[in-house]
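Form 12-C: Joint structure prediction
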Amino acid sequence: MKQCVVRGAWCAGLLVMACNRGADFQNGAPLSVRYPDHVAAGGNQPPAVEIKSPLANDSTNATDGSKIFSAMNCDGCHGGGALGWVGPSLVDGRWRYGGTDGALYQSIFYGRPRGMPAYGGIMSPGAIWKVIAYLRAQPLPPDVPTERWTGEARP
Amino acid sequence: MTAAFLFALSFFQGNPQTDDGQWTMPAKNYAATRYSGLAQITSTNAARLKPVWSFSTGVLGGHEGQPLVVGTTMYVVTPFPDVLYAFDLKTEGYPLKWKYRPEVNPTALGIACCDAINRGAVFADGKIIYNLLDGHTVAIDATDGHEVWKTQIGDMGQGETTPMAPFVARNRVIVGPSGGEFGIYGWVKGLDLATGKILWTAHNMGPDSLMLAHPGLGRYTGEPNVGVSTWQGDSWRRGGAPVWGWISYDPQLDLIYFGTGNPGPYNTEQRPGENKWTNSVLARRPGDGTLVWAYQFTPHDSWDYDANAEMILTDLVVGGRIRRVLVHFDKNGFAYTLDRVTGELLVAEPFANVTWAKGINKKTGLPILDTTKTTGASHGNVKGICPSLEGGKSPASPSAYSPRTGLFYTATNNLCMNFEAAPVTRIPGTPYIGATTPYMAGPGGNMGEFIAWDAARGRKVWGIKEKFPVWSGSVVTAGDVVFYGTLDGWFKAANARTGKELWKFKVGSGVVGAPISFRGPDGKQYIAVYAGIGGDWFLLSGDVRSDDPADVRPPADFAPELARHTSQGGIVWIFGL
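Section 2 - Result
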């Protein structure tokens, strides 16, 4: 099975066509994003592409992404700084629906069950990648997995 | 006094001899007193209370609201996915008679602002009627659990969800939406009790025709279209005013009373004007929705002071005269006593620490603002606003009134906030908020207090300070015992006359539900309550959830100890002697 790696995918529609043409897919098989954490039945990974962000995870993209995160009202659910509110934290290094670039792109583009709206109709792929750059730029808290109570408030 | 008036007194104030031992509507009765006439549990024997039964609902969301007891069956609605359980109180262990599992769109989880809660059901005409989170009302046969009707009332695409408990008056099922954080165009609807058909829809702002208002007729304001003129442009169309709290009813006046929520967005500069009728109490005819009078507690709200808290109806001597009143503990920190016939303001005094206003002008009904606390995008970070937007009391924590003591009992929060507003764009189906609002404990450091209030004089009679905000409802009984719960998971009984704590029990999760009192088939008095922290505390507590490895948060910075005492989890408890 040939893995299709797409870089600089600015348009999801183009990406589908380019990949389907180039990859060794069954007739009619839709494009799929690879979810490396999923268990593959029979040990066979499904034909899937690995989508990489075309953007550098630099401070310019992160700053732009931060503004888009607010402008698209993402903070209304995920909280200021994406620390979690009615929606989950996006800065704890953990991902409900996969943390690869492709999985994050799909979460924003198509939405997810349990509340995530689909933004693909109002956000350009470039804007989605900038939001992802913003999230990638956030530092992980040092002691996420363990809580200790010593009578002192955490710093 | 006339015979009719004496009838009204006994109707509203309850009578231990005639209490049927059931709990068939959210607040026990039309007057929303949450007063139980049962008197076996007293301030003398309450220390002997013990748990007699518990049941895990299998759901982790915030367990607000209360069970119903109808005959020998107890009904429990869970948070999303809104399962309805019917328990057989005649059989040992109270096994299920049936459960109803609705199909609910999980998309609602992202449209509900503040956890996937449900505030309970109402029993009428042989049906258990409640709202599903995704904008539907269902009526379920109380005997066998089959669905009698299901009606779409809300539009999630516009930001509407429906966790409130429906109310029934004059064969109308009265419902309203949440969505003050999503730019909805707030409304109430009257559904036909028999069929679920929507008979009327009344908006809370906009033109008189859509508000079902007739200016100059009866007691309603003489100005036409105040629902438009108190807004800039068409900002009323996305101006909020949700209806997610409690409803009460005076059958003699034939008026329902309910509060409306905050205007949207939080950034005041996107909606200049008084923004009527957000943050208001509205009196409407249940039959056709006609608006009869309205009073706005917080004009041009700068602080998210929803007025969705209950309107408790009773008769009080105010200023030497007996008055038909409604009493309301507002998020803005003032307790209001109004003449419920006319809407005239009688008493308005702070029950919590208040910094945004110096008082309420009794003549004009308007707050006397401290203008340094006014917020808006051009005001930057405004500090030291009390109460916080959790409210001096949360509308999610309904209070109780005892005609025996003449006192009102309510949970309160002692939190303050900073408020930094920013411009925000409405994208339907996404939040429409525009503010960052960190909290801190108010003066004294205790973040909550359970208090008894004299609504005729506007003063606190006693209080029990709590370390954390108090977010549960309450019930008061003819045994002069009042019950409430705490966020760190204690369920407590106190002497309703003195405020002395009589008993407490650790129920397994923080309490944001409302206790009830009922008589079991064995003739004994019981108290039931939900454990299950959530609602706003799903957002605020930080790490109280353990079911999702992909969502790990630090504890709340203003209450880091809370997560030490509780995690999520829904449990129904019954206590008895």
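Section 3 - Comments
The helical segments of chain A are 12-22, 59-71, 74-78, 101-110, 125-136. The longest helix of chain A spans residues 59-71.
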